[in-house]
UniProtKB/TrEMBL annotation, chains A, B:
<keyword id="KW-0804">Transcription</keyword>
<keyword id="KW-0805">Transcription regulation</keyword>
<dbReference type="InterPro" id="IPR001647">
    <property type="entry name" value="HTH_TetR"/>
</dbReference>
<dbReference type="InterPro" id="IPR036271">
    <property type="entry name" value="Tet_transcr_reg_TetR-rel_C_sf"/>
</dbReference>
<dbReference type="InterPro" id="IPR050109">
    <property type="entry name" value="HTH-type_TetR-like_transc_reg"/>
</dbReference>
<dbReference type="GO" id="GO:0000976">
    <property type="term" value="F:transcription cis-regulatory region binding"/>
</dbReference>
<protein>
    <submittedName>
        <fullName>TetR family transcriptional regulator</fullName>
    </submittedName>
</protein>
<dbReference type="Pfam" id="PF17932">
    <property type="entry name" value="TetR_C_24"/>
</dbReference>
<keyword id="KW-0238">DNA-binding</keyword>
<keyword id="KW-0678">Repressor</keyword>
<dbReference type="Pfam" id="PF00440">
    <property type="entry name" value="TetR_N"/>
</dbReference>
<dbReference type="InterPro" id="IPR041490">
    <property type="entry name" value="KstR2_TetR_C"/>
</dbReference>
<feature type="domain" description="HTH tetR-type">
    <location>
        <begin position="10"/>
        <end position="70"/>
    </location>
</feature>
<feature type="DNA-binding region" description="H-T-H motif">
    <location>
        <begin position="33"/>
        <end position="52"/>
    </location>
</feature>
<dbReference type="GO" id="GO:0003700">
    <property type="term" value="F:DNA-binding transcription factor activity"/>
</dbReference>
<dbReference type="InterPro" id="IPR009057">
    <property type="entry name" value="Homeodomain-like_sf"/>
</dbReference>
DNA sequence: GTCTATATAGCGATAGAC
DNA sequence: GTCTATCGCTATATAGAC
């Protein structure tokens, strides 16, 4: 309305992030040029630098945003049994990751393209998320609901298994996400008891 | 001996592949230049093209070589029980992948940098390997050793879980590879029975 | 806020001398 | 088989006009 023609900071900013997310996931950080991102947004390359100081910050912001969303969304109702908490974690992990495949892909594939400092910050967030699962497993062992020799190994094994769903599951296929979740939960449940 | 000075095709060829393997694993295919590979080998960039027609072929040859090695090494002794065959598969997968972390990393991370044709060929090899595991699971279900709703899902879940070992296990740490293998086998065994 | 133009650097691949 | 030199192109990032 009272806005200067050509001024679109509130629109272009999110569009830059969306374009980078899509293109990084498709082609890889190193292979995607700032020109390609600008073309996807519909501006010239110089305009991108109103929204990010450089390409590295763009990558880091995407990964940090994803990990923050993940940590904000995960819940752990301590009043339930460890088994119930683990079942909720499995369902949450599959559901959350399925809903944002591009961000998940980038978070796993582009770690090595982060600077050392940025890498440490992302790894710390990842450690926090893993800690949430391990706490459930340890509580389950203490309550004699689970039999697990090493809860750290079990944590990593479960997360690797669950995240793998994103590499093959596509909606509209032979199975629904609910069926897939039920079968993964059954495997996880057996593996820890 | 009777060799022309400066002629080192039998030495340089493998060194080019080794250098590319190491650098691709560390920095990613797109981020590694032919100049960087030449420097790692100790030659000038022009010399590389005596050993590969282009950079893409270098990547494909590494990935195809890895998958061929994997398929040649995996064994399935059909005379054993499905449980014994699965245990051997778990131990083999962890052992084989642990021995060549760079090749494994590239095989998973650089798929999107393959041309369409090359991608299809690598995916076919991967499908062959997964088929070997699924055959064990199906036989185990038929023999009532395993209870699995969907052997395809179980195949993908088990492989994702086992391959995840490479992302965190380092020799000389808290646990030996044998101990890790034993714990993964315990989780897999429970998950399918 | 976006544009065009440009600085500076590096890329994959090839040609031709030795 | 390896080297040096080079072609043609693209990269990130910045400067200054509007």
């Amino acid at each position: 309305m009272a806005r200067t023609a050509g001024s679109h900071s509130d629109i272009t900013g999110p569009k830059v992030r969306e374009a980078a997310l899509k293109l990084f996931a498709r082609g890889g950080y190193a292979a995607v040029s700032m020109r390609a991102i600008a073309a996807e947004v519909g501006v010239q390359v110089g305009a991108l630098y109103n929204y990010t100081p450089d390409k590295q910050s763009l990558l880091f912001d995407l990964m940090e945003g994803h990990m923050s969303d993940l940590l904000a969304a995960v819940q752990d109702d301590l009043s339930g049994s460890a088994t119930a908490r683990l079942q909720e974690f499995v369902a949450f992990h599959i559901r959350f990751h399925h809903a944002r495949p591009d961000a998940v892909f980038i978070a796993y594939m582009e770690l090595r393209n982060l600077t050392d400092d940025n890498f440490k910050r992302i790894e710390a967030l990842r450690g926090q998320y893993e800690g949430g699962l391990e706490r459930i497993l340890r509580d389950g062992v203490a309550a004699k609901e689970f039999q697990i020799v090493d809860t750290k190994i079990a944590t990593l094994a479960i997360i690797a298994m669950l995240t793998g769903v994103n590499t093959w599951f596509r909606a509209g296929g032979r199975l629904s996400l609910e069926e897939v979740t039920a079968q993964y939960w059954e495997m996880v449940r057996r593996a820890v008891t």
